[in-house]
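Reply to dn_fold:

You asked what the input looked like. This is it:
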Amino acid sequence: MGVDFSEAAIAKARARAERDGVQIEFACADLLEYEAASGTFDLVLVLYLHVPETERRQVLAKAGAALAPGGTLVLVGHDLTNVTDGVGGPSDPALLYTPDRIAGELPGDLEIEKAERVLREVDGEERDAVDALVRARRPLPS
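and this is what came back:
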């Protein structure tokens, strides 16, 4: 299931999925209102969602709840240091990530497997972008 608030983004994703022969369901929705089925997804991706902290925490709680046992949540977004050391992305520090901040905002029942800054090459730019990458897993029942 792919969810985005932008019809244009959904249309691009549908075209890409069709081109690559992949079947994906899409929903055009605001993530603050979207309710995924609890405990059903093996993988949840949160990519470049730059919203105020209160909203981000709500989305991350929902993303964590959507994970099935053994499922993985991956978040990637512009890191706070991107403003001074990278290129692109929001300039408002309140909307940017740090790996530790995101790890601390994830539901407490998830196991953090990775929380780090990564560099991403940007076409046409002399500098790389600096992103925060966090990967967490819902443990299997014992």
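Helices lie at 7-20, 53-66, 82-85, 99-105.
Hope that clears it up.
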